[in-house]
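I have been asked to look over a protein record a colleague put together. Thanks in advance; the entry in question is below.
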Amino acid sequence: MVRIAAFSLIALVAMTGFAAAGSGHHYDCNKCQLTARSDKALTKKDGLKCVKQLAGHITDFYKGSSKTEYKLIKHKALKIQTDQGEHDIVKGVDFKDLQFHPDSVGGFTIRNFECENNLEGLAICSKCEKH
């Protein structure tokens, strides 16, 4: 049973990019870049739905306290088409009181998050400050 749980956790990290949560230090991460990606045309409304879902998942997964929260940055979301033909909606997000072990650049990166509306969610947070 313990082996199954361990392999499940390893699979989760491998698939989503979520790094070690739990007993790490507490961080505020500002100006994170959250992206909703599709291989088809994408509306800002659908993209922001995915961004909010990913932000909510990050606050649940890295919950440091009852004060853990996220806030969408007031700047407009960007709508981008990549050279590979992918359609992105990119939005800035601030996180407060996350608990995790940072990666080599002092934050975290998440790839391949499956949003409920069949979009792919990505997150890059590199401006995290320990408190």
Remarks:
- Residues 81 and 101 are 33 Å apart (CA to CA).
